[in-house]
Amino acid sequence: MLTLKLKFLKALYKFYDQYAKNFSSVCTPGCATCCTHNVLITTLEGVHILFYLENRGKLRLLEKLHSTNYLRPSVTPNQLAHYCIHKIEPPEDDSFIISPCPFLTNGKCPIYEVRPFNCRSLFSEKKCHLGGEAFIHPLLLTVNMIFTQLLEQLDNSGLYGNMLDVLSFLANEENLAVYMKGKTPNHTPGLLPNKPLPGFLCPPEHQLEVEKILKEISHIEREGKNINQCIKLVY
Ligand code: SF4
C-alpha cells in the first residue's frame, strides 16, 4: 500500500507542477528567499524524501536538519478546513521565527526533485520579501489548499508537521517500521495525526475550477488502481 501511495503522491506532484505552469511567477532558479525552516509536510512526503536520500547515499544530509524556534502547526490542513466549515476559530500556532531551511546548500535545494508540496507550491507574482512571504495568485492559493487537503487524506494513517520533525521521526527505524506497516504512529511532540477530509476549503468563485481539477485527478491510475481508492475526490 505504501508503494502505491508513493506513486499517487508523485502523480499528484506531477499534475500540480503541470497545472501551476498556467500562472506567471517571478520565481527563478537560485532564488531561495522562500526556503525557510517552516516547511510543513506529511509523513508520506517525508518517506518520499527519505527514500530519495537513501537511494543516492545522501542520508548524511539529515544530520544538517537542526533548527530552533521553527513553526510547529497546531492544526492539520483538514482540521483547519473543519474549523472553517463549522465557523470555529482555529487555535493559533505557537510563535516562531523565519530562518533558512537547513537543507539549503550554497543557495540550492539538494532534494529539489522530491521537495514537498509546501515548497513546490510557492509561485510568487512579485519578488518575495526577505523572510519568505510570497504573493500567490488567489486561485492558486485555493488550489494549494485543495492539494494539501488531498495529500493529508492520501496519508490517512500518518502524521503532519514541520519537515524537521517529520524527518527526524522517520529517521528512527522503529518509527519508520510502524509507519510502513500502515499503522498510525504514537503521538510524537510537534506532530499531529492526519485527519479525514471534512470537505474542501474553497471560495464560491473557485468552485467550478476546483471541480474541474478534481475530475481530472479522479482519472489518475497506478498499478491498475484508481486514486479514488486512496482519496475521496467528491466535491
Ligand atoms: S526543502 Fe528545498 S525547496 Fe524546500 S525549503 Fe528546503 S531548500 Fe527550499
Tell me the series of helices and strands, N- to C-terminal. HEHHHHEHHEHEE
User: From the helix content, strand content and strand pairing, which structural class follows?
Assistant: mainly alpha
**Unique bound compounds:** iron/sulfur cluster
Round the mean pLDDT to the nearest integer and report it: 92
Largest sheet: 3 strands, antiparallel
Spans where pLDDT lies below 50 across 5 or more residues:
none
How many beta-strand elements?
Answer: 5
Helix content: 25-40%
Strand order of the largest sheet: 1-2-3
Put simply, the count of helices is 8
| Amino- and carboxy-terminal Cα gap | 25 Å
Which radius of gyration do the C-alpha atoms yield? Answer: 17 Å
Brief rundown of the structure:
This is Protein belonging to Uncharacterized protein family UPF0153. The protein has helices at 2-20, 43-55, 77-85, 117-120, 138-154, 163-170, 173-180, 207-217; strands at 40-42, 159-162, 192-193, 221-222, 225-226. It is mainly α.
Description:
The protein is mostly helical. The chain has one domain. 38% of the residues lie in helices and 6% in strands. The chain has 8 helices and 5 strands. It has helices at 2-20, 43-55, 77-85, 117-120, 138-154, 163-170, 173-180, 207-217, and strands at 40-42, 159-162, 192-193, 221-222, 225-226. The strands form 2 sheets. A 3-stranded antiparallel beta sheet has the order 1-2-3. A two-stranded antiparallel ribbon has the order 4-5. The radius of gyration is 17 Å and the shape is globular. The relative contact order is 0.21. The model has no long low-confidence stretch (mean pLDDT 92). The site of iron/sulfur cluster (SF4) has 10 residues, from loops. Iron/sulfur cluster is lined by residues 32, 35, 39, 101, 103-104, 109, 111, 115, 119.
